[in-house]
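Action item from last meeting closed. Structure (119 res):
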């Protein structure tokens, strides 16, 4: 049976309130930035799609990672993207304040554009 977003959020909250709040704020920002937006539970996180899959949010023990499917195509002028793989890049968030400090709204829009260009 497929897991629901609500079920994974319960699991994340059990791991820690800070992790849960970061994930919830990432989801809120993504919903505000991207329309239409769909969420799907896969690979242990919540994937985000609009016209294309563009990323997702994953909670780990000590941080939350916002993954961008075509992150290697993003010009990272702020230097917050991590990773060196063929396609994906991510931003690690350790607090709710990192969402604004690391300009996540800008990266979400860039990730959406990169996914559209890759299609």
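Sequence:
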């Amino acid at each position: 049976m497929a897991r629901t977003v609500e079920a994974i959020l319960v699991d994340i909250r059990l791991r820690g309130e800070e992790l849960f709040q970061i994930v919830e704020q990432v989801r809120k920002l993504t919903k505000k930035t991207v329309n239409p937006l769909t969420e799907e539970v896969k690979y242990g996180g919540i994937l985000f799609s609009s016209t294309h899959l563009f990323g997702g949010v994953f909670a780990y023990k000590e941080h939350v990672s916002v993954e961008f499917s075509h992150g290697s195509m993003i010009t990272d002028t702020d230097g917050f993207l991590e990773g060196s793989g063929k396609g994906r890049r991510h931003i690690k968030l350790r607090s709710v304040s990192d969402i604004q400090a690391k300009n996540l709204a800008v990266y979400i829009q860039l990730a959406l554009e990169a996914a559209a260009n890759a299609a």
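Note appended to the action item: The helical segments are 5-15, 17-33, 97-101, 104-118.
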